[in-house]
Write a structure and sequence with these properties.
The protein is α+β, with helices and mostly antiparallel strands. It has one domain: Roll (Thiol Ester Dehydrase, Chain A). Helices cover 21% and strands 38% of the residues. The chain has a 6-stranded antiparallel sheet. It is globular, with a radius of gyration of 15 Å.
Length: 146
């Protein structure tokens, strides 16, 4: 496994500055681990993420999948904040109980212009996948700095 270009701590610091509404202390989002080609991201439990029926909302899991993909891409290519989601497909497989979620993202393809990833979301401490997503990110052309 290759080392990440940016560490989890580096990414959290930069993301907190760039997206303060998403990566502020009370958001519950935390980068657990990064490596070249992947990451693990944790979404702490938040009462307002529940939907009727007492399960975690699909929107919460979609957000976690997208954040995990973004973190995996940036950990692998460096700080390119204008990389953007071009596709996100998610399947909700099992009903997660109220609690923290862990998303593990593995990049399937990392090219110059596109990254494709596979994201598995589990309830923390459980093996059963509660949601599975695939995502594609567009990576902007890099400009050379003189």
């Amino acid at each position: 496994m290759h080392a990440a270009v940016l560490t989890a701590r580096d990414l959290e610091r930069r993301l907190s500055a760039e997206f303060p509404e998403m990566f502020e202390k009370d958001s519950g989002l935390a980068i657990v681990e990064v490596w070249h080609g992947g990451c693990r991201v944790r979404q702490g439990f938040q009462q307002d993420s529940l939907r009727p029926g007492g399960t975690i909302s699909g929107g919460t899991m979609m957000l976690l999948a997208d954040v995990a993909m973004y973190v995996a891409v940036l950990a692998s290519i460096g700080w390119v904040p204008l990389a953007v989601t071009t596709n996100l497909n998610i399947n909700f497989l099992n009903k997660p109980q109220p609690g923290a979620l862990i998303a593990e993202c593995r990049l399937l393809k990392l090219g110059k212009r596109l990254a494709v990833g596979d994201i598995a979301i589990r309830s923390e401490g459980e093996e059963t996948i509660v949601a599975h997503a695939t995502s594609t990110y567009s990576i902007p052309p890099r400009t050379e700095v003189a």
